[in-house]
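Researcher: I'm comparing several assemblies side by side, and this is the next one on my list. It has 944 residues spread over two chains. Same procedure as the others: predict the full complex and return the structure.
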Amino acid sequence: MIDTGLAEELSRIVGARFVRTERAELATFASDGLPTYRRTPAIVVLPGTAHEVCAVLALLERRGVPFVARGAGTGLSGGALAEAPAVLVTLTRLARILQVDPANRRAVVEPGVVNATLSRATAPFGLMYAPDPSSQTACTIGGNVAENAGGPHCLKYGVTANHVLALEVVLPSGVPVRLGSGSGEPWGPDLVGAFVGSEGMFGIATEITVRLVPLPPEVRTMLADYTSLRLAGDAVSQIIAAGVVPAALEMMDHNAIQMVESSVYAAGYPADAAAVLLVELDGRAAAVEDDARLVGSILGGSGARSVRVARSAAERDKLWQGRKKAFGAMGRVSADLVVQDAVVPRSALPDVLEEIASIGERYRLRVTNVFHAGDGNLHPNLSFDAADPDQVERVHAASGEIIRACVGAGGTITGEHGVGLDKLAYMPLVFGPDDLGLMAAVRRVFDPDGRANPGKVIPTAQCREWRPWSAS
Amino acid sequence: MIDTGLAEELSRIVGARFVRTERAELATFASDGLPTYRRTPAIVVLPGTAHEVCAVLALLERRGVPFVARGAGTGLSGGALAEAPAVLVTLTRLARILQVDPANRRAVVEPGVVNATLSRATAPFGLMYAPDPSSQTACTIGGNVAENAGGPHCLKYGVTANHVLALEVVLPSGVPVRLGSGSGEPWGPDLVGAFVGSEGMFGIATEITVRLVPLPPEVRTMLADYTSLRLAGDAVSQIIAAGVVPAALEMMDHNAIQMVESSVYAAGYPADAAAVLLVELDGRAAAVEDDARLVGSILGGSGARSVRVARSAAERDKLWQGRKKAFGAMGRVSADLVVQDAVVPRSALPDVLEEIASIGERYRLRVTNVFHAGDGNLHPNLSFDAADPDQVERVHAASGEIIRACVGAGGTITGEHGVGLDKLAYMPLVFGPDDLGLMAAVRRVFDPDGRANPGKVIPTAQCREWRPWSAS
C-alpha cells in the first residue's frame, strides 16, 4: 500500500534513512500518550532542517497528500496521529537551540527541542522557560506550541501562548511565513495567538522565539493532607482568595495517593488521606517566607491533618516525584490509562469532583484525580484494559459524561491537552455552528485543501458553511 | 453627500437621535489622539445593544457600505477614523458591566465600558482589571481589545491579550459568533488571540469576558533622577537583571521633565535632571519591602542623584501625575503632539535614545521621551504645529527615521498603539509579502469585502496575492 514513488522523492529531500516505510517502524508512531486511539501513517519522514520541511511540504502539496506534524508524541488527545494516506512529519531532528539572549530574556529554538532541555540550557544565565507540562523531560517545544501546553507552574507563569513571541512557520503549501515580530508583546495583526494552540492545522513551526523568565532564588514546597476532598477544595479557594499566587497548587485524590505510594515513585504522602495538596511558592526569599506563613496558616485552619514543608531540594523533588510520576504509577494497576482533561470554575471544584466519582461508579471504572487545582484544570484519569472492548466502550461513555458535567458547571472541554481526535465530538458543547464555521474558514486560509492534520479539532459536519457575506 | 436613505434605515434600528449626519457633529468624530490625520465619516451611528449592532452591520452589509468601529477615540495610530462613504459605529452606549464573578475572578463587560470604571466596580471585591493605558480614565475596554492596549503596569501584569478570555463578536456580515470559551486559559482553535489586536478589521466585540486580578495590598513608588540618560537606562537593565518584576518601570527624559514641571501637573521632579525613573513595586507587604530594599540599593549604586520614596497615597499620586499627564503638559508648549510608539530590546535603549535625539536635531523638532523602559516600549513625542505643512512634513519624516532606527536595533514598529493609518507604511519593515498576504487572507475570512476599517493596518499593495495552494 506504500507509495514507493513518494517515499523515493522524500528520500531525495531528507536522505533515505530519514524516511520510514516498514510496517514495524510505522507501528512505533501509531499512538501517542492516549491509548484509546491507534492510527498508522503511510510514511514517516524526519526532516533535518527548516529548508527540508519546506521541500517536504511543497512535495506533499504537489502530490495532494495529507500530513500530520509530530514532536515527541506525548500528547494526550490523539492530535499527533496520522492515518494513511497521511504522511507523518516528525520534527525531533530539528532540535537546535539557535540563540539564547539573556539581556533581552529571549531564546530562539527549533521545534524539536525538548522542553526541559531549554531550561537546562538557560539555567547558567539564571533564566528558565516557564511552561512545564508533566511530560517536560520528553515533550518538545513545537508540540507545546501546537497544543498551547500548560503545566503545574502555569498557574503563576501562564501557558505556552504567554511565552511565544514570534514564529517561523512553513504553511501546508511549503511557503514559509513569519508570524509576530519577536520584540515585546504581541501587537497588530500578528497571528501568533492564532497559531499557538492550532494543533497542527495551520502548518509547521520551524523556529520559535520564546520568552525566558528569571529562575526564582527561593522555592518552598508544602504538602497538606485532608480527610475529605471538599476540605482540600475549599483550602484551594481560600489560598487564591487571600491574594497569594502560588507557583503551583496541585491536588491528588485518595486513589492517586494510593497508586503513587504503592509504586516505586512513593513520595511519602499519607496513604490513607482523601486528598493531598501540593503548594509551591517561589520568588525572592522574603516574599516566599511571608507567603509561606500565610499559606501555612490557611492550610492549618482549613482542616488539614498535617502540613509538611520540604526542608531540602531532595525533599522537594520527592514531593514532586509523586505528582509528576503519578501517571506512571497508575500504569502499574491497569494495562491502560486515559488522562482526561477539562476545566471548571474553581468554585465548582468540590461539586464536580463528587459528580465525577459517581460517574466512575456508574461505569465501574477506577477514576483517579491528579490536577491543577489552582486554575480548575481537572485531570480525571480512567484505568482500563484497551484489549477489552467493553471497558473501552465504558471509558468513552464515562469520559463523555465527565466532560458534560464540567461544561454544565460552567467549564469547558479541555484545559491543556487540546481537542485532537478525543474531544472532536465535544466541540458542539461549547461552540455553535457559526463559531465552528469561522474556525474552519480560518483553517482554510492556512490550509485550503484540509491536508494539515485532517479530521481533527473541528467537527466539520457541525460547521455552518461559511458565507460571512450573507447575514443570517 | 449624505445618503439620507441609509441614515433613515439606521434611525429605524437605533432611533433618530443616535444617528448623526450634521457636518458639525461629524467633525467631532474626525480625529483621534493623533493629530496628524483627519477623516470625516459619512454618518455616525450609536447602537445601544448588541442586537442593534447586529442589525446595523447587517444593514451596512446589504448596502455594501464600509464601517469603522470606535470606542472613546483616544487611539494614537489613526485606527478609529472613518472616511466617507464609511459609517462610524460608535460603541460608547454599550457601557454595561454585565457580570462580576469574584470567586472565579472574571467580569463580563460591554465594549463601551471605560477602562478605569471596571476597576472601580471590582475594587469592593478586592480585584482590578490590570491593563492600564495612560488614557484609562477615558478609553474603553472595546478599544483596548481592538488595539491590544498596554500601559505602565503591563510590565508585571501583561497586556490586554493576557486578560481577555472570551468574546462575543458581530462579524461584518452582522452574524454574531462566540470566540474562546471563557473558562481557563485559551485552548484549541480559539480565535481570541487573533481578534485581540485586530484593530477593528474582524468585526465588533459586543461582550468581553476579562480576567480580574487581586488588588495588591501594598504599593511602593520610587523616583530616581539622573544626570545622564545612559545611567538611567543602565539602572533599568540592572533592576530587571536582579530578578525583580516591578509593577511599573517608567522613564522620562529632560524635555519631558521640564514640560511637566512648568505645567499645572508639576510633580516635584528635579527640573534639571537628564532623566527620571519611576519604579513601582506592588504585592504583599513583606515582598514589597524586600524588593524596595533591593531596588533602592541598585538605584543608589547606579549613579542616581537622589532616590525618593512616596510616603503616602497622595505623594504616590503626585509622582504618577507627572507621568500620566505628561502628554497634557506637552500640549502647552506646542499646538500639536505626535505620541510615537515603538519597541527596542531593553539592552539597546541607551543607543537608540541617542539616535532619536540626533534625528530630532536633524529635523529641528523637539523630541520628548516618556516611556515604559522596563519592556523597551518607547514613546518619542514630537511637538509641532499641524497648521504648518513644513512642520507636518518634518514630523512624518522624523517619525519614519525613528521607527527605522528602532527596527534596525532589533525592535519593532509599535508596542501598544497599533498600526492603524500611521504605521501602515512601516509594515514591510518587519513583514514580507507572504506574511502580509497571510494577514490579508485571515482578514478576508472575517470580512471578505474589506468593509471593516478599510485602508488600515495591512498595506494591501505590498501583500503577495494569497494562493497558499501554489508553493513559491
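Model: For your comparison table: Confidence is low (pLDDT under 50) at residues 468-472 of chain A.
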